[in-house]
C-alpha cells in the first residue's frame, strides 16, 4: 500500500516528456497515466490534434478516471510517475495496467539525486532516486520490447 499519495508532485505545466512525445502522435488517442490534476497537458495535446485522456488515482475524480481508462488509446504516456510510487507492488500494478492495453507506452522518470536510495523529497512527496536504466528490468517483465531512447523508455 502506497504510504504517500504523490498528489503533491503534480505541477501546473506541460510535462517536458509530453512536449517530446505528443508531436509524434498527432491524430491519435493517448492515455496519460498519472497525468496529475492540471489540464496543461490536455490543452497542449488538443492544440496538436491529439486526444489526451488523463488518469490519476490521486488527482482526478472517479468519473474522470473511469472515462480515461475506457478511452481505447492508441498509445500511453506515463511521465514522472514510477519514481514517486513508494510501494513496489503498486508500481508493478501500474506497469501491468499500462501493459494491459497492448499499445506502445512511453515512460519517463525523474531520476532525483540518482543515488538509488529512496527518500522524502519534499513535504508529502517521495522519490525513488533510480536512474532511468534501473527501471528497464522491471518493465521487461511486462513488455516484450523495452528500449531506452535517452531519458525515455519506449515499451511495446
- Which CATH top level class fits? Alpha Beta
CATH homologous superfamily? Vaccinia Virus protein VP39
The helix-strand sequence is: HEHEHEHEEEHEE
Count the DSSP helices: 5
Largest sheet, if any? 6 strands, mixed
How many extended strands?
A: 8
Beta-strand percent range: 15-25%
Find the CATH topology. Answer: Rossmann fold
Overall mean confidence score, pLDDT: 92
Percent of residues in helices: 25-40%
Labels describing this entry:
156 residues, alpha/beta, Rossmann fold, six-stranded mixed sheet, two-stranded antiparallel ribbon, globular
List the helices and strands and how they pair.
Elements: H1 16-21, E1 29-33, H2 40-48, E2 51-55, H3 62-69, E3 75-79, H4 88-100, E4 105-108, E5 119-122, E6 125-127, H5 136-139, E7 146-149, E8 152-155
Parallel strand pairs: 1-2, 1-3, 3-4
Antiparallel strand pairs: 4-8, 5-6, 7-8
Characterise this structure.
The protein is an alpha/beta fold and about 160 residues long. It has one domain: Vaccinia Virus protein VP39 (Rossmann fold), CATH 3.40.50. Helices cover about 25% and strands about 20% of the residues. It contains five helices and eight strands; from the N terminus they run H-E-H-E-H-E-H-E-E-E-H-E-E. Strands 2-1-3-4-8-7 form a six-stranded mixed sheet, sandwiched between helices. It is globular. The model is unreliable at about 5-10 (pLDDT under 50).
